[in-house]
């Protein structure tokens, strides 16, 4: 049976919430224990239930692990105010440079679209023209490539159609020739079975012969 994906929000049903808490808590404890054994790391886990009950796991001493964590946090937060100001100034400078680059790109884009060219010098206009020529050359080359690929596909389809026509001609051409010969043979056979009265001579002679 496929398990559905659990939506990450608070479980409203108290019974379901308690059952889920128990299962997930035990699984979390198990994973913490496995991580400490397999990777030889120091792990401390603290969980408080909705009713305030404490659940904890520690690979050594949970108090020592907490003290180690606090000491590590203090050592990483010992930067002086001057360093913080320098970092802030550096971030502001980077943001200002990024805004300048964005403005230059927007201006260049507008000029390539033919907008805001009144303030451009001859050299700038020539550079824009060269950029457009290069872009047009690339577009035409890509267009030619697409056309060639399309033509090659059509040629392959044409070959397939011609081959199919040849096959059908060979198949039904023999059948048509056999059907054409058959009526002629039937006509010859029918003509040989028909009796005809043929008389050559004058009409009165023909009458006398018929009276006899």
From TrEMBL:
Residues 88-171 form a coiled coil. The keyword Transcription applies. Residues 88-178 form the K-box domain. Pfam families: K-box (PF01486), SRF-TF (PF00319). Gene3D superfamilies: Transcription factor, MADS-box. One of its GO terms (biological process) is positive regulation of transcription by RNA polymerase II. Residues 1-61 form the MADS-box domain. Keywords: Coiled coil, DNA-binding, Nucleus, Transcription, Transcription regulation. GO terms for cellular component: nucleus. GO terms for molecular function: DNA-binding transcription factor activity; protein dimerization activity; RNA polymerase II transcription regulatory region sequence-specific DNA binding. InterPro entries: MADS-box/MEF2_TF, MEF2-like_N, TF_Kbox, TF_MADSbox, TF_MADSbox_sf. It is found in: Nucleus. This is MADS-box protein soc1.
């Amino acid at each position: 049976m496929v398990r559905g994906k659990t939506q990450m929000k608070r479980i409203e049903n108290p019974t379901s919430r308690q059952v889920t808490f128990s299962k997930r808590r035990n699984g979390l404890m198990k994973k913490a224990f496995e991580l400490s054994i397999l990777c030889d790391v120091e792990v401390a886990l603290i969980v408080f239930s909705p009713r305030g009950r404490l659940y904890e796991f520690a690979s050594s001493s949970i108090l020592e692990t907490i003290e180690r964590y606090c000491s590590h946090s203090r050592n990483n937060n010992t930067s002086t105010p001057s360093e913080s100001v320098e970092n802030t100034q550096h971030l502001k400078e980077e943001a200002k440079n990024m805004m300048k680059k964005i403005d230059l790109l927007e201006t260049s884009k507008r000029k390539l679209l033919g907008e805001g060219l009144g303030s451009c010098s001859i050299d700038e206009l020539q550079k824009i023209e060269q950029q457009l020529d290069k872009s047009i050359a690339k577009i035409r080359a890509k267009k030619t490539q697409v056309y060639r690929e399309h033509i090659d596909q059509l040629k392959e389809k044409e070959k397939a159609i011609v081959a199919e026509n040849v096959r059908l001609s060979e198949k039904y051409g023999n059948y048509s020739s056999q059907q054409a010969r058959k009526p002629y043979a039937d006509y010859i056979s029918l003509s040989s079975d028909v009796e005809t009265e043929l008389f050559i001579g004058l009409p009165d002679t023909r009458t006398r012969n018929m009276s006899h």
